[in-house]
Amino acid sequence: MRKSGRTPLMRAKKLEKALGISEIYLKLEGANPSGHKYDRISEVLVKDAIANGFKKILVDGSECYIQSVQLFAKLNELEIKVPLFKQEKWKISRIDKSILFDMRDKKDTITRSNLREIAEKNNMYLMCEWNLNNIISHLVLEDMTRECLERMDFKADTITIQLGLGYTLSSVYSGLIKSWVHEELCKLPELICGSNPSWKDSMDEYVRKMQIGGIKSKEKDTAKTNLYMEDDYTGIVATVEKIIMDTRAQMIEIEEIDLKNAANMLRDVEGVMVSRKESYAMAAFIKKANQGKLSNGKHLIILNDARSEIEVCEIKSFNDKNKEELLEMTRDWLSTYNDSVGETVDAIEKAMKEGFLLIAKRNGEEQGICIVVNMGFERFIPTYHLAYIGVKPGNKGRGVASELIGRAIELTDGNLSLHVDLDNKRAKNLYRKMGFNHVYDRMIYNHPNE
């Protein structure tokens, strides 16, 4: 089972009210294991490395990208090396020294242009952040696009993203075209892209700083992996310009103050945390809304590292959290209920085997638990059933239960039922708010001998 993806798609109702726009959805990619959209790509690239017989990976790029690759390499017991060049003191202080591959020399003869040759010589799988505009990345991000569209019933008026190196924009567009061709989408959403006003100069500076100008990809590798990227990486700007033109994306220039205000607004209004450097999409949407250039409809904003203040973690093994702890949390945090210990244990074991065990955390401390079991049906009744949900005392009205239920809906694609006491009005109101309807009352036979 993939560990990345299926991140929360959050309906931002408070933000809708603040901006006067109906139906705003936030894709919180910070809920990925290492906290970034990169995880979707890193996980599959590591899988590709294994499929092609590699035992070692050579990775280069930003700290965030390296950490993402390192996570999935470790999970798959692959060795990882990070090249260390001159003027890269940040790597010495932030990257584990045991994985650094020192390429500094007095004559400065080794540069990033040698990485492909070095990787081949040492039988390493090469993963570079600046070369993510490839087939695997596109397929993975097309999958992310479909993930969003399915939750939005294939109705979206705008999709707002951050420009970056252009591969997210081209991937989202490809995903939209596929859904449109298959007649799942009636019309293509407008693509909005937030960027630095001087993004062209910034990209040229990136090429110069990373010393990747003039790096050539071998013809066989280009045919295998690259969709848009020029052989010579000095062509990045031209490539991105072509992507913008092909996708007909509307570019919104974002200043530093816009990034600050967007990050603050998300935090203060919706309790969503996003780094300032990854706030371009949010800032672009706010700018359009404030200009009165957005109509009511369905609007999707993809945020590369955004996460809720409340983090929902999926427990996939009793090694992550033992059965006794889960049982104690369930029985301590639920409102008074009559299920026996044996019944609760049964639900926990079944959820671990073929359902979902979710724990909500705030600042690393556990605040709530949700247990979802697979009922084994496809059509007769909903496949999944929310067996138990409980929050730690002191969390009333702080959104913990909402986050847990929302995540359960995400993971089950809404194919989910639950039971609620007839006189529990507060719980009923929450469930209705989350999209549940009262369908029937449940009656259980009370055996006369019991």
From TrEMBL:
GO terms for molecular function: acyltransferase activity, transferring groups other than amino-acyl groups. Keywords: Pyridoxal phosphate. It comes from the Bacteria. Pfam families: Acetyltransf_1 (PF00583), PALP (PF00291). PROSITE patterns: GNAT. One of its GO terms (biological process) is alpha-amino acid metabolic process. Residues 313-450 form the N-acetyltransferase domain. Its cofactor is pyridoxal 5'-phosphate. InterPro entries: Acyl_CoA_acyltransferase (IPR016181), Cys_Synth/Cystath_Beta-Synth (IPR050214), GNAT_dom (IPR000182), TrpB-like_PALP (IPR001926), TrpB-like_PALP_sf (IPR036052). This is N-acetyltransferase domain-containing protein. It comes from Clostridium estertheticum subsp. estertheticum.
